[in-house]
Amino acid sequence: MPTEVSIIPQRRAVFYTTFALFPVAGLSAGDLAWATDRACFYRWNGAAWQSISISSRSGATAAIGAAADYPAGSVFQNTTTGQLYMQIGGAWVSVAMTPRRIFVPKTTEQVVFNSTAFEDDNELFIAVAAWDLVLMDIGLLISSDPAADFKFIFTAPAGATHFVANQAYTLPVSASNLLEFNIIPTSGVGDYQWLIFRAIYRGAAAAGTLQLRFAQGTAAVENVYLRAGSFFFYERVT
After folding, report:
1. What is the pTM of this model?
2. How far is 33 from 39, CA to CA, in rounded Å?
3. What is the structure's pLDDT at 181?
């Protein structure tokens, strides 16, 4: 005899909203919800929402979110640093880096006049993450009257360390860390001089910005130029 099969349909509620707005009353086991803020599916188990998928997202550093809000195994591609993170044991853990050399050109010259106060370069800076290790090739095209000369520094997040050429500098732990270089003698505003060197930046627990600043070595009624064509060329390393 043929077997007769009956199908009893069962309806399930499906929600689409942020996790904080998921309902917790009037539900049946098996109801589903998509958390728009976490990019993750959940299933109501009769008492609580359980994740049934991992989250896979990308965005700037600030968009990563609290690790505890995401299922284990979720991944986040940091588009600021190129790092890939995975939620492991309730924390975001860097599991890979996107190997790439990034070129940061200076396209517009910048001038300091009659001042030894450091000014931020408006193009030569990079975002750095906690514990970043960054290899940098730096080229600064400068010109200045010999009476003024040229000096520059880097500011960086608290606790960071710079290794420049064969010398190591540990920045003080403070709100504004300064790595100051010796004054560079210059030969004249009409003369262009290249400063080209390699540096290694090693970050600590704080994220932030690695910023080039420059000024006159000695205050003089002259212009000091950081010329277009200067550059950062950097990559993050493991």
Report:
1. 0.58
2. 11
3. 57
> Measured between alpha carbons, how far is 74 from 79 in angstroms, rounded to an integer?
16
- pLDDT for 171 equals 42
**How many H-runs (helices) and E-runs (strands) does the chain carry?**
0, 20
Rounded Cα distance, 104 and 188, in Å = 26
Q: Is domain 102-236 classified as CATH 2.60.120?
A: yes
HSE-CB at 216 with a 13 A cutoff on CA atoms is 20
Amino acid type, 19 = F
Query: Which portions of the chain are predicted below pLDDT 50?
Result: 166-178
Hey, what are 115's tokens? Answer: 């001042």
Which one-letter DSSP state was computed for residue 184? B
Q: Is the CB of residue 118 less than 8 Å from the CB of residue 215?
A: yes
Please identify which residue in the block is written with the tokens 């700037």.
60
Q: How much is the pLDDT for 98?
A: 56
Domain with CATH 2.60.120 in the chain: 102-236
pLDDT of residue 170: 45
Q: Which two tokens stand for residue 211?
A: 């910023």
Count CB atoms within 10 A of the CB of residue 198.
Answer: 12
For residue 197, give the 3-state DSSP assignment. strand
Structure tokens at 156: 């960086």
